[in-house]
């Protein structure tokens, strides 16, 4: 929904001043002739009927104007009970009327019932969509470890303080991956083919993990992450990860075998993709949920941290499985 301060603004600020007004003394035919001469704006929902001094007397829906006999007076076919918004009302009060009456537009009138503008339901849909877009952008930035609202207004030094701590998780994760690769240097030297697919395997792990984070954060918007919820989410994500891992692992294995005709390398690389996809999916569920339990903002904590841990798990699966398979089957 819209911010509370926005909803407290006067309704007149959002009104359209281009609205059709018909005199109550006219007949349907005369009214149609007048509309043809004066022209109307593109979107007309209701025609408002006024009497002396511009006082609102009724409203005439477009369908009724087009279907009633031409000789019928407007007074006889207009709707006299008109729900109007007072000029002193706020946008929030106007919104309540739209929800209550389900109309597409309301006239805004002063103390003497003279029309001062028309409020269209499109005002709310446009404002809500604009705010929803802002929320989506803020969610995107937060999964990267920053808040867009804070960064925009921050000085250079403040922006550094906000962003650098979360980048440390990436630095530490990358360092851990380098040390891990060093520990398996002998395996890498014997099977240089593993180096060719290292970027692909890491990229797949991060992509799957990012997808799981997005799904989990969206789910936590609607429900509190209890233990029962977490068990259900992990179970569902595990099944999904097995399917994703099987598809990605099988495809990558086929690519390796087609290229190098090495079934052991295909089994090793494809199998590591399968295992790393499962671990990345589960991390994408567990870390945001645990962050919420620990009173941390899951959007900020989950992004960099999950991706760093996913990289470490991916490399562990990649090199560990290769070393084991080559030791047993080579």
Please indicate the percent range of residues in DSSP E strands (runs of 2 or more): 5-15%
CATH topology of the largest domain: Tetracycline Repressor, domain 2
SSE-based structural type: mainly alpha
| Spatial gap, N to C terminus | 61 Å
What would you say the CATH architecture of the largest domain is?
Orthogonal Bundle
Number of helices: 14
Number of strands: 6
Residue windows where pLDDT falls under 50 for at least 5 positions: 128-134
Sum up the overall morphology in one term: elongated
Largest sheet: 3 strands, mixed
Q: Superfamily at the CATH H level of the largest domain?
A: SLC41 divalent cation transporters, integral membrane domain
Q: What's the gyration radius in Å?
A: 32 Å
Average pLDDT level: 81
CATH class of the largest domain: Mainly Alpha
How many discrete domains?
Answer: 2
Sheet with most strands: strand arrangement? 1-2-3
Helix content, binned percent: 55-70%
Question: H/E series, N to C?
Answer: HEHEEHHEHEEHHHHHHHHH
Give an overview in words.
There is one protein chain. Helices cover 68% and strands 8% of the residues. It is mainly alpha-helical and 330 residues long. It has 2 domains: 11-120, CBS-domain (Roll); 139-329, SLC41 divalent cation transporters, integral membrane domain (Tetracycline Repressor, domain 2), CATH 1.10.357. It has a 3-stranded mixed β-sheet with strand order 1-2-3. It has a 3-stranded mixed β-sheet with strand order 4-5-6. Helix 8 (156-183) runs parallel beside helix 14 (298-329) and helix 12 (227-260) packs antiparallel against helix 13 (263-293). The longest helix is centred in the C-terminal third of the chain and has 34 residues, at 227-260. The protein is elongated, with a radius of gyration of 32 Å.
